[in-house]
């Protein structure tokens, strides 16, 4: 590979890395705005400022998709493996508002989380950069996305169940429900709405998938510790003079 082509590859990776970091920061901004609206009990749809902000953030996500598509050498393979990023980057709320479509406030609130799927992928990449090895990076990414899923589920559960479920008196109750469900232990709070019941199943399934990953990670740490211990004792034996050298 020539020096010019290798420099071009590094430039492409650097540009893509900058875009991933920006996507992560914009996704965090969306999370903060959704949380603020939820806790302040502000109407979810009739906010012109939020619609404009989400529109431009989704436009940036689409720009990133187009950029990576043109930088990819195997464009059809990129479309086949990254088509979901295109779907989740569409500003659905703005389309709904522009055509004056009628949806329930709860469904509109749920749609606000769709662009965050794109941020989840960027989060996995950034966490992988910051991790010391692949296994640690994978485990950290899984834990981070699991906690994000628990948080988003608790927000949705709180919005949907508040007022119809007497057991959900505040957000703390919804957060307790989410954590108990993801540990597969279950809580004394039962879902009353259809979406709440679906979220209960989803969280329990995610929790069951996380335990094997946690086991693999701990096993990997133990194996590395044992290997370091064995290497240490081998080094001591090789540095220790044998008894035949003494007279």
Record keyword descriptors for this entry.
247 residues, mainly alpha, Helix Hairpins, 9 helices
Q: Can you tell me about this structure?
A:
This protein has 247 residues and is mostly helical. It has two domains: 124 residues; 99 residues, Orthogonal Bundle (Helix Hairpins), CATH 1.10.287.70. The protein is 77% helix and 0% strand. α6 runs antiparallel to α7, α7 crosses α8 and α7 runs antiparallel to α9. It is flat. The relative contact order is 0.07. The mean pLDDT is 81.
Q: Summary?
A:
This protein has 247 residues and is an all-alpha fold. The chain has 9 helices and no strands.
How would a textbook summarize the main sheet? none
The span between the termini is 60 Å
- Name the beta content range: under 5%
Classify the helix fraction into a percent range: over 70%
- The backbone outline, from C-alpha atoms, is flat
Q: Write down the secondary-structure element order.
A: HHHHHHHHH
Query: What class would the helix/strand composition place it in?
Result: mainly alpha
- Mean pLDDT equals 81
What is the number of domains?
2
Question: Stretches where pLDDT falls below 50 for ≥5 residues?
Answer: none
């Amino acid at each position: 590979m020539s020096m010019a082509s290798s420099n071009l590859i590094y430039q492409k990776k650097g540009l893509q890395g900058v875009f991933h970091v920006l996507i992560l920061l914009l996704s965090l901004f969306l999370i903060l705005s959704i949380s603020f609206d939820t806790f302040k009990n502000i109407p979810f749809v009739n906010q012109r400022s939020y619609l404009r902000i989400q529109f431009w953030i989704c436009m940036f996500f689409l720009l990133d998709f187009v950029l990576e598509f043109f930088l990819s050498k195997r464009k059809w393979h990129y479309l086949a493996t990254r088509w979901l990023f295109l779907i989740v980057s569409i500003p659905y709320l703005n389309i709904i508002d522009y055509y004056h479509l009628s949806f329930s406030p709860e469904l509109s609130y749920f749609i606000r989380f769709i662009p965050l799927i794109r941020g989840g992928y960027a989060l996995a990449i950034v966490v992988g950069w910051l991790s010391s090895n692949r296994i640690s990076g994978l485990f950290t990414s899984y834990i981070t996305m699991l906690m994000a899923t628990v948080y988003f589920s608790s927000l949705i559960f709180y919005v949907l169940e508040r007022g119809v479920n007497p057991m959900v008196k505040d957000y703390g109750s919804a957060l307790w429900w989410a954590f108990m469900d993801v540990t597969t232990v279950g809580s004394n709070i039962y879902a009353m709405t259809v979406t709440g019941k679906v979220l209960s199943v989803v969280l329990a399934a995610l929790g069951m998938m996380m335990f094997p990953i946690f086991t693999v990670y701990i096993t990997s740490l133990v194996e590395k510790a044992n290997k370091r211990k064995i290497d240490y004792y081998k080094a001591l034996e090789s540095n220790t003079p044998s008894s035949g050298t003494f007279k």
